[in-house]
Design a protein that fits this description.
Oligomer: single chain
Number of helices: 6
CATH class: Alpha Beta
CATH architecture: 3-Layer(aba) Sandwich
Order of helices and strands: EHHEHHEHEEH
Strand content: 5-15%
CATH superfamily: 5'-nuclease
Number of domains: 1
Largest sheet: 5 strands, parallel
Helix content: 40-55%
Number of strands: 5
Strand order of the largest sheet: 3-2-1-4-5
CATH topology: Rossmann fold
Length: about 140
């Protein structure tokens, strides 16, 4: 199944090795899901994850870029030929929703599920990392 990870999932995975975000990110590549990515979301990942407050302890900006390059190579790169903005209150969330719709994803994985209220109108469900991890473990 195709899925989009909101940037906050990667931030959470970088900050802690104990949570569902880390479990999901560290499982890539996996037969359980295919991560989808757009150029815009990749640029956001780079900008946010290279901020000093988001760098994992002992890691450099170059380490983050190498990791993001790895994730990009494991992801389905989706072009987006249309924009439905504004659909959600935040333009960055609209970008994630547009990607999910264009790539025919069923799920957006995010710590901010409430920010994607209304995405179900497009057939897309926003789930927390814990909920998504439970879903893929149940469907094995």
């Amino acid at each position: 199944m195709k899925v989009v990870f909101d940037t906050n999932v990667l931030v959470a995975a970088a900050r802690s090795r104990r949570g569902a975000s880390f479990a999901l990110v560290s499982s890539i590549p996996t037969p359980e899901f295919q991560l989808c990515l757009s150029v815009g979301l990749y640029a956001e990942w780079q900008e946010v994850l290279t901020r000093s407050e988001n760098l994992p302890p002992g890691r450099t900006t170059e380490d983050v870029f190498r990791f993001l390059h790895y994730l990009a190579r494991q992801s389905h790169l989706q072009e987006i030929h249309f924009l439905w903005r504004p659909f959600l209150p935040d333009a960055d969330d609209d970008m994630v929703l547009e990607l999910a719709f264009a790539a025919a994803c069923r799920y957006i994985v995010t710590h901010n599920v409430k920010d994607f209220h209304g995405s179900d109108q497009l057939g897309i469900t926003a789930l927390t990392p814990r909920e998504f991890l439970k879903l893929i473990r149940t469907n094995k």
